[in-house]
């Protein structure tokens, strides 16, 4: 059988996948609506999400909260990072830019 017309199996670039995953898992987003918008199955979106989260040592999608703090003068922490495993990182506003 010869299939004419557009190929059914699409190829999604890493950038496209990231855009779709970001849209689907932004707080308040509806995965079904995002799937319809991009003409993709919800199952594939969840598969990509599982794959992204499973990559050990690779960047993964995590929720971030931006909070408006008063001025951070006098060496007060300017960046707070709380990891799910309980590790907390505080970077002072006076930290050198060469900080590794």
Number of DSSP helical runs: 3
Structural class: alpha+beta
Low-confidence stretches: none
Q: In total, how many beta strands?
A: 2
Question: Which sequence of SSEs, written as H and E, runs from N to C?
Answer: HHHEE
Summed over residues and divided by their number, the pLDDT gives a mean of 77
Description:
It is a single chain. With 100 residues, the chain is of the alpha+beta class. It is 32% helix and 11% strand. A hairpin with a 5-residue loop joins strand 1 (77-82) and strand 2. It has 2 domains: 14-54; 67-100, no CATH class. The chain has a two-stranded antiparallel sheet with strand order 1-2. The radius of gyration is 20 Å and the shape is elongated.
Short structural description:
With 100 residues, the chain is of the alpha+beta class. It is built from 3 helices and 2 strands.
Features:
alpha+beta, two-stranded antiparallel sheet, 2 domains, elongated, 100 residues
């Amino acid at each position: 059988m010869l299939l004419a017309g557009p190929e059914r199996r699409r190829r999604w670039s890493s950038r496209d996948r990231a855009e779709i995953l970001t849209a689907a898992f932004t707080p308040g987003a509806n995965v079904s609506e995002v799937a319809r918008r991009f003409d993709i199955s919800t199952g594939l979106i969840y598969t990509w999400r599982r794959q992204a989260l499973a990559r050990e040592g690779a960047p993964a999608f995590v929720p971030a909260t931006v909070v408006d703090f008063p001025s951070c003068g006098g060496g007060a922490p300017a960046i707070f990072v709380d990891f799910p495993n309980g590790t907390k990182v505080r970077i002072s506003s006076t930290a050198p830019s060469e900080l590794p």
